[in-house]
Known about the structure:
Elements: H1 2-20, E1 50-53, E2 60-65, E3 68-73, E4 79-81, E5 86-88
Antiparallel strand pairs: 1-2, 2-3, 4-5
Amino acid sequence: MRLFLVAAIGALIVLSVSLTLGGVIPQDLDEETTDEPGPSQPDYHCEADGYFPDPKSCQGFYRCIHNKPYHFKCGNGTYFNPNLHNCDWPGNVDCKAE
């Protein structure tokens, strides 16, 4: 009985991990490298940590962490609202992107 209980708990843990990972449990992780360059650094300079509008796009914004910019894009039909630091309806945002 104890062995059955241990096996059942193990199966539940595996199922939980599988569902958490979207149903995929990697069996073999091969490390591969390519000669292709990775993503380019955004053409944006961080002055401080925080959220900042993309000067080229009303939908875009940067999150600066330790002087490193990370670019994000709001969903379709929304603009970045620098006052709220999130995506918002265009009517609520005064965007002057180029």
